[in-house]
Amino acid sequence: MNKTFTSKLALAAALIALPQIGLAQEADTTPTNADIGFIFTSFMFLVSGFLVFFMAAGFAMLEAGLVRGKNVTMQLLKNISLFALASIFYYIIGYNLMYPGDGWTITGVLGAFSMAGLEPVGLEGAEPDLSYASVGSDFFFQLVFCAATASIVSGALAERIKLWPFLAFTIVLTAVIYPVQASWKWGGGFLDAMGFQDFAGSTVVHSVGGWAALTGAIILGPRLGKYAKDGRVTPFPGSNLALATLGTFILWLGWFGFNGGSQLYMDTAGNVADISRIFANTNAAAAAGAVATLILTQLMYKKPDLTMVLNGALAGLVSITAEPLMPTLGQATLIGAVGGIIVVFAVPMLDKLRIDDVVGAIPVHLFAGIWGTIAVVFTNDSASIAVQLISIGTVGAFVVVASGAVWLVIKATMGLRVTEEAEMQGLDMAELGMEAYPEFNRA
Questions:
Q1: Measuring CA to CA, which of 60, 113, 166, 248 is 20 to 30 A from 238?
Q2: Cα–Cα distance between 303 and 130 in angstroms, integer?
Q3: Is residue 19 part of a domain?
Q4: What's the count of helices (H) and strands (E) in the chain, helices before strands?
Q5: What pTM value is reported for the model?
C-alpha cells in the first residue's frame, strides 16, 4: 500500500514539473533581438529576390511581344538560358568577385576568383553575422540583379544575333564584367569611397546592361531593311502587344522587390517604414513615366503609342532606382515623368543614328539610368553631382571597352550575326527549327 502511494506521489510530482520543464526549454530557445533582425532581413531578401526573379518572365514576355512572330521562340530560349547561365557563373566566379572583402590585392584578386559558399545546414557550427542576413539570401538576391543585367542586352540585339555567341557574351557579362564594376560601389570599392550614390542600380545594373547593349548593337548592325538609303525607317511591328503589356506589368511588380529589397535591412520599425516609402515612390515614378509618354505621343504623333507607354513606365522605374527612398511622392513623380519623356525622344534619335534597338532597351535602361543617377542630387543631400558624373563615366567607359572587346572577339571567332537567309526566314526556324505560332502566317 505504501509502495503504491509512493508511486502515485512520484507520478503527480512529475506531472507538476512538466510545464516548468517546457517553460525552461522555451526560454532557452527564445530568439534574441539579433536573431529576429537576422530572420526578418533574410526573409526580406528571399521575398524581394523571388520578385526580381519573376522579372525574368517579364523580360521574356516583353521581348516576345515586341519581336516579330518568326523570332519569338528564339527570344524565349535566350531569356531562360541567360538566367540559367547567370545563376551558374555568378556562383562560380561572380559573387566572390563582386564582394572581394578587404582584398583587392594580388592575393585578394586571385582569391576572389572562387566559388560562393553557403552556411551549413541549420547554421550547425557556424557563427553568422546576425547584424545582417544569411549568405544564402544575400547570394540569391544579388544573383537575380546580375541576371536582370543580361536580360537588358537580349532584347536590344534581337532578330539577328546567333544564339551561342549571345550566350557566350552572357557568361562573360555575368561572371566578370557586371561583378567587377558592381564591386566598385556595392562591394565597398573606390566609387563607394568617393561617395557615389546608387541605391538599387540605375547605373550599377541598368546602365551597365544599356552600355553592353549599345556596344553590341553598333558592332552587330541593324536588321535587314530597317533603314533605307534615303533615311526612311521601316517599322517592324511586334507580334503580340498583349504579351508585351503583360511583361511590363510583371516588371513593374518585380521592381518593388528590386528597390524595396535594396533597403538591405528589415530589422527595425524605421527600416520597414522606409521600405513602404520605397514602394510608394517606385510606383509613382512608373505611373508618371507611363502618363508622360501617353500625353507626349498624343501631342507629337496625334495618336498615343502603346509601345512607347510601356517603355515609359519602365523608364520611370529605372529613373527612380538610383534613389527611391529620399524623394517625396511628388518628386518621385517628376523623376519618373522625365524618364518617360527621355524615351520618347531617344527612340527616334537612335533610329537617326541607325542604331537598331528592337525593344527600346537602350533608351529605357541606359538613358533613363543616367538621368536617374544624376537626379539623386536633387533629393539626397549627401550626393555630389561631380561624383555622380564621374561614376557614370567610369562605369560606362569600363563596360564599353570590356563588352566591346568581348563582342569583337566573339565576332572574329564564332561570328555574331546569322546569315541574310536565316534573318529573312526568321531565327525560330533557321536556328531552332520550331515556331512559337506555327498555325499562323509568320510575317
A1: 166
A2: 55
A3: no
A4: 19, 0
A5: 0.89
